[in-house]
Amino acid sequence: MTVQGGVPLTGSWSRTRVELPGRGELKGDDDSIDRRSVTPNHLSLLRIPLLAGRYLADTDTATSEPIVVINQAAARKYWPDRDAMGQHIKINNKDRVVVGIVGDIRHLGPESPVRQEAYIPLAQDPSTGVALLIRTREAPLKVLPAVKTAIWSVNREQRLSGDIFTLEDHMDRLIAQRRFNMALLVLFGALGLLIAAVGIYGVMAYIVAQRTSEIGVRMALGATAGNVVGMVLKRATLLIVAGLAIGGAGAWYLSSSVKTFLFEIEPNDVRVFVSALIVLATAGLLASAVPARRASAVDPLIALRHE
């Protein structure tokens, strides 16, 4: 399968002006579309989902009706209030009919926004230079000699230039730095959570030690171990709630400062804050459970002589 206009995720593109019949001159970002001239099996090989219509076919030749398959972003941008199927669009001054709509992919890289794209049959938009994409069942580099042999059996003078890589390896290189940064942040976050849990444990252990006599009196008057555990955890819960309220308000106020580190998520996303509060509250209660369990095991006689 061959493609002209860039391999996915490589950041390469071929951008073309576009016109829509009866819509007048398009302005700004709307007046261009990323054009990919591809062979018929390009979209299915990359497993780009078909949302409407059909994929390109072998019957889409140089002498057949000019057609195009667009992505969902293009359909939303150019026909927001109607069905894009069957609509006409002029690309490179040639009128084409939309015969299919496919899902969006990030051609320009994993952190680049999705753009409007048009997939045109290579037979209707020939090019002197193309990229060859292959899906294999075994290690890709093992089949490379066979691929070269097959190409040269057709044209011995065909030059094969450019990088040879798998999309998986290319993706790994693209996100290596981001992955390292995220690993460090996760590590620091885990250490922070551990330090917070140890701090809560220390505070609750101190509170239990200070109230040892009170606990002894309560148990001598009939308080059960469950009552003592509940009393300690209730105090811990009040402290945790107060801490989370203050910390959550501060984090919400300062959330905009971390926006550059985030991808496809808002810094004040409610789901993230709720998840963080649940994790912190759980860690705090678990850290408080040990002092609470110790308090329930206090011998009333020893506790009364504590002072």
Question: If you had to describe this structure to a student in words, what would you say it looks like?
Answer:
The protein is an alpha+beta fold. It folds into two domains: 2-164, no CATH class; 168-304, no CATH class. Helices cover 45% and strands 14% of the residues. It is built from eight helices and nine strands. The chain has helices at residues 42-45, 72-78, 144-154, 167-210, 212-220, 225-254, 270-296, 300-304; strands spanning 2-4, 15-19, 32-38, 50-53, 67-71, 88-91, 94-102, 117-121, 131-132. A six-stranded mixed barrel has the order 2-3-8-5-7-6. A hairpin with a 2-residue loop joins strand 6 and strand 7 (94-102). Helix 4 (167-210) runs parallel beside helix 7 and helix 6 packs antiparallel against helix 7. The protein starts with a strand and ends with a helix. The model has no long low-confidence stretch (mean pLDDT 81).
Highlighted features:
single chain; 307 residues; alpha+beta; 2 domains; 6-stranded mixed β-barrel; 8 helices; 9 strands; 45% helix; 14% strand
Beta-strand content: 5-15%
Helix and strand element order: EEEHEEHEEEEHHHHHH
Write down the overall geometry: elongated
Q: What does the largest sheet look like?
A: 6 strands, mixed, barrel
Q: Output mean pLDDT.
A: 81
Give the uncertain stretches in residue-range form.
none
Major sheet: arrangement of strands: 2-3-8-5-7-6
Rg over CA atoms, rounded to whole Å, is: 32 Å
Backbone structural class: alpha+beta
What proportion of the residues is helical, as a percent range?
40-55%
The tally of domains stands at 2
Number of E-type strands: 9
